[in-house]
Each structure stands twice: as C-alpha cells, then as structure tokens.
Amino acid sequence: MYPDLAGKTAIVTGSSKGIGQGIAVRFGREKMNVVVDYHTDPNGAEETVRLIKEHGGNAMAVEADVSREEGMRQLIDAAIQRFGAIQVMVNNAGFSNGCPSHELSLQDWRRVLEVNLTGAFLGSREAIKYMLDHDINGSVINISSVHQQIPKVHNVHYSTTKGGMKMMTETLALEYAGRGIRVNAIAPGTIETPANPTEEKQGKEKEATLEKIPMNKIGKPEQIAAAAAWLVSEEAGYVTGTTLFVDGGMTLYPSQLG
C-alpha cells in the first residue's frame, strides 16, 4: 500500500472490466478517487464503482468515447467537478479484431488506431494540460502490450498502436520531466481477462499459450494493477519514460531455450 496516494484522483479509461477494472479497484484500495470510464458496458462500470467503494475508495462512472476529443474532455470535466483535481491518468482503453493483414479493412484499421493510440494521446494531452495549468506533479500511465516489442500476426493494427504508444510515452516523458509530470507505460503479457480468457482454454491451445511464457502461467489483472499503483506512487518518483513489462518473461523469447 502507498499512503501518499490516499485522496488523489485518477481517471482509468476502459475500466468496466479486465485490466482497467483491476487497476481501478486497486486504486480504490489505495483510498483514491476514481473516474471509471466505459463506452458500452454500464453494468460493468457500476460493478467497478461498487468494488472501489467496497475497498475504501470513492468513484463515479462516466460514459465516454475516448477516441473523441469531446469524450476525453467529458472525463476530465467530470473528475474536476466531482473530486476537484486530477493527479493520475491511466490510458487503458483498447481493443483488437484480428484478421489477416491483406484482408484488414481501412475502417477496422482506423478504429483500432483511434481507440488504442489516439485515445491514449488525447488522455495524455488533456491530463498534462490540466496538470501544467494547476502546477500538479502528476503521473500518466499508458497500458501497452508485449506486442510493442513482439510482432503479432493478424494484428498489424494492434501491434502498430502499441509500438506507437512506446515512442509516445518516451517523448512525453522527456518533454515534461522538468515540469514534474511522469509518463510511463505498462506492457502486459497474456492476462486472464474477458477479452482473453486463457484460463478457460484446454488442451493444445492452452499448452501453446503457456509455451510462450517462461513462468508457465497466465497473469492476472491484479498483477498489472500492482505495477500501476507502484508507478503512480512516490516510491516510483524517479521513474519516467520507461515501459514496465509484466509478462512472465514472455519478451525473453522462450523459443530460444535449448
């Protein structure tokens, strides 16, 4: 637990389920105020709010399309109106709809880039702008993926967004380090979420997944959330511009083991 986080306010995009929900609930355990963003899952968002309050934090759910400027500003405005300030921004919203690259439609390409990369840019931009205007030493986390480093077949749009997120994170970190704003990324490996329910897979499919992970197990949202809580705390106050891989060793390329 990190006592310095108590009473601070965070926005977590895409936090109605999965990794985003895990991060939001962990912030609740840290006694933070959390704006829970959702786009199509109001019931999941309300469940996240309930869990945050159950763990001692405060929260509200806001529907917003993070790929649009007006959606992101809606989140910022809601946080300020309800909690008075913003110290933490977590750009977690993202998705993929894999298919062979030669069959990928321009519409699907654009939508994945709009949500995954443009959404993270808009969240970072609006949060940094607010922090600068109010002289806040804040923190931004971008939720990336091991696929900022490892290519993912049939997911050229998704991998492109995560590779772009890496450079965006580093550029923003360099630009605003002297202003007291830290910008980092977390790159999860295979995590047990509704979008990736690997624990339910059986037989050869599960074996093939585990063969890519040196620790031979699937990660959990709580483990990503623990990394996020540390990164936004004062214990990580000298950390900026880095990507923290939480992947069970997946980026060590276990196929190279003899």
UniProtKB/TrEMBL annotation:
From the UniProt record, give one GO term of the biological process aspect: bile acid metabolic process
List the PROSITE patterns. Answer: ADH_SHORT
* GO MF entries: oxidoreductase activity
The UniProt keyword set, sorted, is:
Oxidoreductase
Q: Which Pfam families match?
A: adh_short_C2
The source's domain of life comes to Bacteria
Q: Which family does it belong to?
A: Belongs to the short-chain dehydrogenases/reductases (SDR) family.
Identification of the protein by name: Glucose 1-dehydrogenase
- From which organism does this entry originate? Sediminibacillus halophilus
Q: What is the lineage of its organism?
A: Bacteria, Bacillati, Bacillota, Bacilli, Bacillales
